[in-house]
Amino acid sequence: MTEHALFGEGFAADPYPAYAWLRENAPVRREVLPSGVAAWLVTRYADARRALADPRLSKNPGRHRAADHASGRVGIPGERGANVMTHLLNIDPPDHTRLRRLVSTAFTPRGVAAFEPRVRALADRLADGFAGRGSADLIDEFAFPLPIYAICDMLGVPPEDQDDFRDWAGMMLHTSGKRGGVGRAVKRMRGYLGELIHRKRGALGDDLISGLIRASDHGEHLTEEEAAAMAFILLFAGFETTVNLIGNGMLALLRDPAQLARLRRASAEGEGSLLDSAVEELLRYDGPVELATWRFATEPLTLGGQRVAPGDPVLVVLAAADRDPERFADPDTLDLGRGDNPHLGFGHGIHYCLGAPLARIEGRAALETLLRRLPDVRLAADPRALRWRGGLIMRGLRSLPVEFTPE
Ligand code: HEM
Predict the structure, then answer these.
(1) Is the pTM of this model over 0.90?
(2) For the stretch 31-51, what's the b/e string if a residue is b when 16 or more beta carbons lie within 10 angstroms of its beta carbon?
(3) CB of 249 closer than 6 A to ligand 1?
(4) With contact defined as beta carbons under 8 Å apart, do 117 and 361 qualify?
(5) Is 107 a pocket residue for ligand 1 (Cβ < 6 Å)?
(6) 293 Cβ closer than 6 Å to some ligand 1 atom
(7) Which domains, ranges and CATH numbers included, belong to the chain?
(8) Which residue has the CA at smallest separation from atom 23 of ligand 1?
(9) Tens of pLDDT along 11-32?
(10) How far is the CA of 242 from the centre of ligand 1 (A)?
């Protein structure tokens, strides 16, 4: 394996050989990314875990030495100049600590668990759309709408407005890489959320936006601007990630009939624990987030023997760390019952995924529903012909055509 496989032809379809090369030969290495920005890539599990929790690595793009952040090259797409929002993924303590504490009071694991029956009903409703047909695109018809409707429902977006979100999210997904489309979609979503927060202030309900408005901590409240940015980041962080969990996860299962049959049996017998460990294993084996979001050194530091200068961007390659043979036995094997699985798919440290409980519920509901409704589901394309959306941070399929005996 040679180093130039990185970001080249075929990389998005299978980045793992290139990651294995980096892990072995250059575990912390400065690379010029396709965007033109140079960043340190961290690929070994132990280094990755350490870097994710290192307070000397800031999430604030303002700490970047070059002007890249001003041109939007290191932020969330669509965030530029005066448009930059402050949210959990681009701030450090103490601001991060305050905002995270505030949102945690509204977004509790217990509140999320109570939401599970609604996510399952939603998954079934989406499956109704294609289960009688004998074929489907599981991205377009299932993995894509599921998280959008789930988060809209949780936030308290009225049902009649939820299709607007589906459209905006579609613009974000299908134009990813092209800034104009993403920028427009982000602007419309933010505008809508700002108005919704304003309207809800007068009539609080039991939804998450009402919870955000109500959230207070030592007498502090979120400003309307902060609440809108928070609602936006929940949508943004919880959408494409979940699409990819369902898409990459189903593909991994369809390519491994023995593991698929094992899960189908356990799921039919109501053995929930294999479903739980399957979701964790799919997050490890081919997780939705390839690279953790940007971090910037605030002082000189040494990472994996390399000297990182202040202002240097550092990207932790979660997908590489989660296949590190130093940490995982048989890392390239999908083992749905894997017990010892402290994967980094949801990150690590203070920015650990806030939405992990919701993502797990969605992953479980999606797998359980698809296995039940499509008993002999199989791939309807040569796996090598599948097309991938290889953004830098996320990795997922553009479509996943399947066939099955209609209901
Ligand atoms: C943070 C992964 C679903 C909300 C993160 C991070 C990762 C991640 C890796 C850390 C990024 C970093 O340290 O740079 C995932 C995956 C998901 C998923 C793999 C689905 C399978 C969700 C959902 C939501 C969500 C459903 C919300 C509804 C967030 C938020 C943060 C975050 C708000 C920022 C937390 C902070 O900075 O304190 N996620 N996520 N995520 N995620 Fe998720």
Answers:
(1) yes
(2) bebeeebebbbbbbbebbbbb
(3) no
(4) no
(5) no
(6) yes
(7) 11-403 (1.10.630.10)
(8) 238
(9) 888 999 999 999 999 999 999 8
(10) 10
